[in-house]
Amino acid sequence: MERIFFPPLSTVAVSGGTHGNEMTGVYIVREMEKEAVNMTGSVSITPVMANPRAVDACRRYTEMDLNRCFTDALLSSPITDSTPYELRRAQELNAQLGPKGSEEAVDLLIDLHNTTANMGLSLIFYSLDWITLHIYKYIQSKMSSMPVRAVQLDIPISDAYSLESVGKHGLAIEVGPQPNGVLRADIFNMVKEAVDHTVTWLQEFNSGCTFEGGEVEAYTFLKSVDYPRDPAGEITAAIHPKLQDNDFKLLRPGDPMFMSFSGETVKHEGEELYPFFVNECAYYEKKIAFHLARKTTFTFPSICVKKD
């Protein structure tokens, strides 16, 4: 593959509190605001508290999930007296950090999240993006003592619904397990290290370093699985103990997925796939027990900054 040249990546936004009870991002953004470091070498950094009302209430959201409000359709919808707060806030953030899909958008948007699932350090991104794949590879190389994984949501950018899609390039850093409303030092430090490595990569890229191409593995989202339910819609089973806390462990046909309240095991049928967001607290309302993905190998080219 031929070397690809990109313009300098000089503006980055780091957002936390998109979900107001995911505390790592909340406290990283607060610390960045206290330090008032808005320039690191060649990189201008903007910390953003995405959903301040939800942060104040220590709730995921107040009226609707902010991290589902960034599709083109919702961002262009008219504001009325009945418009939910989070949709208003999404349009404010789009004006501040975007507009989405425009040349004025920040070069890189990093949105910080926690999950109650045992996902470790995971990066989440949308369609194939050489910049985010290189950042992923760089973080993997620098944090080799732990698994660093990536999840690809293969969705057109117009339908991309989460905050990081507003930037020219974007990724979410999702780390768990951490309970809602709780701050863990080990996870705080893990996320801060990943953010610091990203900023270092940006500085090296802007200085003219060539980053060689290569391959990385990522998990491409395929589908969601709901809990077993009775005719009234009530859950009749919990995640099976052999699946619980085993995010990204291959799920084979016949492997247990759920244990019913009467003690029966519900087994996986179909192809071998990888579960993630297993038993995520916030997904009960969305009727999602876990997601399933295929493991994909991405090949990417060498990249370098474009000189004037």
Q: Can you describe what's shown?
A:
The protein is an alpha/beta fold and 308 residues long. 23% of the residues lie in helices and 27% in strands. It contains six helices and 15 strands. The protein has helices at residues 23-35, 52-57, 72-75, 85-97, 130-142, 185-206; strands spanning 4-6, 11-16, 39-40, 43-49, 108-114, 120-125, 148-152, 169-176, 214-225, 237-239, 256-260, 265-267, 274-276, 290-300, 303-305. The strands form three sheets. The protein has a ten-stranded mixed sheet with strand order 3-4-2-5-8-6-7-9-14-13. A hairpin with a 2-residue loop joins strand 3 and strand 4 (43-49). The longest helix has 22 residues, at 185-206. 42% of the residues are buried. The model has no long low-confidence stretch (mean pLDDT 96).
